[in-house]
């Protein structure tokens, strides 16, 4: 069998497996009545409308987006100076902070979540909304840290030297050369952190689960009282949102390079 | 004192002296080529002048002012990098205007200067072109224009033409020299290409193992190399072993023995100065081993006592010898350079 | 520009914010958790300060031994299945055109970022009697009547493979893309069929990458906390589920913390193993 034929078969099987549950969920989400049947009975986009119309779901959506935006912003604000410092200075010991930034992402999330739970409970801030933003920022700092480190590594140092010979001091060079070159990586890092924070459940649950509902928490809580098609429409909404954001990164950035492949064929 | 003085400049990396006690005086308006094999310290020397490396010892003085501790961005030297270092996020005009922009020069003034510079490097009207859309030669010119934007006192170039193909490189060498002469700017170019150095320089500085081996005019370096290293590095040469008693490949020349001293050394003679004659008329005698006819020149290889001597002639003065012939080798005394060691 | 060691206090300034944040909000919480694992449970509040080993002693029961054994077995199976599917897939992906690669990467990233809640919900729906895949089988005439396919072990395994597969592909992708394509071509010119060349050349060349990936996916699967609950029965619960359960529903934070510390040690041991494999791989190169 030719390699192309084999590729077609394996790609199709993987695509079917990955798409399967999403297709069913998408089918369920357009049911006309409030029942989870598949194939769907009738066709209605009402359940998508309900995400924004229903007070509970809309509040959860706003909570989630606010949390994701805030935590991604904090994560980038931490990752940018850290990765800049590691690139600009010779300070091997400072790599301990890179390690600290990557650790929460590699360990099972339940552990990080429990760490935050005990910490916020101990300092008496348990349940405050801002604790979730900080917790997510720490948990997801890995993403901007990795993309920004990659971005800094890709800057040709002679560009910075050239700017210096033309009269740029450290601050001017940072503003006029380094930041413009790093911007795509900064945006990707923010977008990665944003999407993952939007979907994150266990840390949000263990920090603010009883005081604030994010969308994943809302879905999980709603599951206990029975399934409704609105959960399906929210799920589809999330998949599409992620696909659009990653699609934009791919459109304006170099996705294979961001994911660790060699510099792509574009250059 | 006007011009650039390097005083006992040294750079040590670990236990290696990349640049080792360099002393050099460059008068104002001179075109200098730092020439040497890779790893000889020429790039490190240039980077110290630019302030991109801190010297371990020594001083850099420009027009009587000590620049040694001055940070790069306050030196106001123009520099062209080997990679050219054009900013990919800026277009041609923005690249050239960069040093003006960060000094707050107003927009109209910037534009005027950019147009002036683009004319100077013969790229009029390209200001809005993205850098990625330029050819190799155009990128070269943009990098030069950008480095000249501030009318620097010192113009530094690190292997600036190495990315170009051979033909374009030759043309750019001539152009760069003409540009330098019209501006009268003190210029230092690092290169490993001796043809490039011969084409452009007023002063060729040959470096080896972190030291200056010879600093002189191109023709002087070629005709009167100071040692075997320089003779060998600049152009093609015949380096013949010369014993202290005046023995040169089995024949004794007492006058050469006096010149070289008892320790012995080498006799250097350029291939175009070696004449091939009938066996009995030569200074030395040998056997032709190979004749290479390159069209424009003809190289004849002669074996004398196990040492190969090359003679280069033009087709007009072609000699009748073929491989296997016995031949006399004449070494005109005015063309011979005796090198100690 | 030269990289230089920081000289003045101002040179350290950029480090201040990230360092303080990471120390205060990661190192301290982590230490707090370790401390709490030695505290005593307090039914009225979260815990009371103490220094006891009771929380760790509870592991020694047959019940926790069983849970631990099941967690490890499940994670091992997930890792093996994922690598078996992902390796040939990623290898074929690396051969595909840049466009095709990008489309797949977007799809894989989108699914990787999906909330475990949503993955669980999607699979319970697909496995359900009313909205499940069996309805399609009935419609196609393959089955006489729709039935529920969960909860059971197969459902847990399927869900977790779904969750870990995109992760596996992304871990393998950089290493596979960098693999010298002439390796395969050389094997082909020597008379190997593509399939034989794949097993005789590509797989051995990537052996250490495959081992490292297995361990990373194993640790990833160990962290799954919702899918075993949503798609399985209580006997399919893993250590991660128990930690959540103890911390939130049983309000026994000290015991949850002790289990978490144990899970960290186990994960770290396996991450260490990955690094060791990586170092060996570096030594070979």
H/E element order of chain A:
HHHHHHHHHHHHH
Number of strands of chain A: 0
- Count of discrete alpha- or pi-helical segments spanning 4 or more residues of chain B: 9
* Element-by-element helix/strand order of chain B: EEEHEEEHHHEHEHEEHHEEEHEEEEEEE
Name the poorly predicted regions of chain B.
none
How much of the sequence lies in strands of chain A comes to: under 5%
The CATH architecture name of the largest domain in chain B reads: 3-Layer(aba) Sandwich
List keywords for this structure.
heterotrimer, B: about 350 residues, alpha+beta, Rossmann fold, OB fold (Dihydrolipoamide Acetyltransferase, E2P), six-stranded mixed β-sheet, five-stranded antiparallel β-sheet, 20 strands, about 30% strand, C: about 280 residues, mainly alpha, MetI-like fold, two-stranded antiparallel ribbon, 13 helices
What is the secondary structure topology, with strand pairs?
The complex is a heterotrimer of chains A (267), B (341) and C (285).
Chain A: H1 3-29, H2 46-53, H3 55-88, H4 95-106, H5 109-123, H6 129-140, H7 142-153, H8 157-165, H9 170-199, H10 202-208, H11 215-224, H12 229-252, H13 255-258
Chain B: E1 4-13, E2 16-26, E3 31-35, H1 42-50, E4 57-62, E5 65-66, E6 78-80, H2 92-101, H3 107-120, H4 136-148, E7 154-158, H5 166-183, E8 186-191, H6 194-200, E9 203-208, E10 211-216, H7 218-223, H8 228-233, E11 238-242, E12 247-248, E13 251-252, H9 254-260, E14 265-269, E15 275-277, E16 284-293, E17 298-304, E18 307-313, E19 326-330, E20 337-340
Parallel strand pairs in B: 3-8, 3-9, 6-7, 7-8
Antiparallel strand pairs in B: 1-2, 1-4, 4-5, 9-10, 11-14, 12-13, 14-20, 15-19, 16-17, 16-19, 17-18
Chain C: H1 9-36, E1 40-41, E2 47-48, H2 54-57, H3 62-95, H4 98-112, H5 116-127, H6 133-140, H7 153-178, H8 181-189, H9 194-205, H10 207-222, H11 227-231, H12 239-249, H13 253-284
Antiparallel strand pairs in C: 1-2
Helix pairs in contact in C: 3-7, 3-10, 4-7, 5-7, 7-10, 8-9, 10-13, 12-13
Task: Tell me about this structure.
- The complex is a heterotrimer of chains A (267), B (341) and C (285).
- By secondary structure, chain A is mostly helical.
- Chain A has 2 domains: 1-44; 48-258, Orthogonal Bundle (MetI-like fold).
- In chain A, 76% of the residues lie in helices and 0% in strands.
- In chain A, helix 3 packs antiparallel against helix 9 and helix 6 (129-140) runs antiparallel to helix 10 (202-208).
- Chain A is globular.
- Helix content of chain B is 26%, strand content 32%.
- Chain B contains 9 helices and 20 strands.
- Chain B starts with a strand and ends with a strand.
- Chain C is mainly alpha-helical and 285 residues long.
- Chain C has a two-stranded antiparallel ribbon.
- Chain C has helices at residues 9-36, 54-57, 62-95, 98-112, 116-127, 133-140, 153-178, 181-189, 194-205, 207-222, 227-231, 239-249, 253-284, and strands at residues 40-41, 47-48.
- Chain C has one domain: MetI-like fold (Orthogonal Bundle), CATH 1.10.3720.10.
- Helices cover 74% and strands 1% of the residues of chain C.
- Chains in contact: A-B, A-C.
- At the A-B interface, helix 8 and helix 9 of A face helix 2 of B.
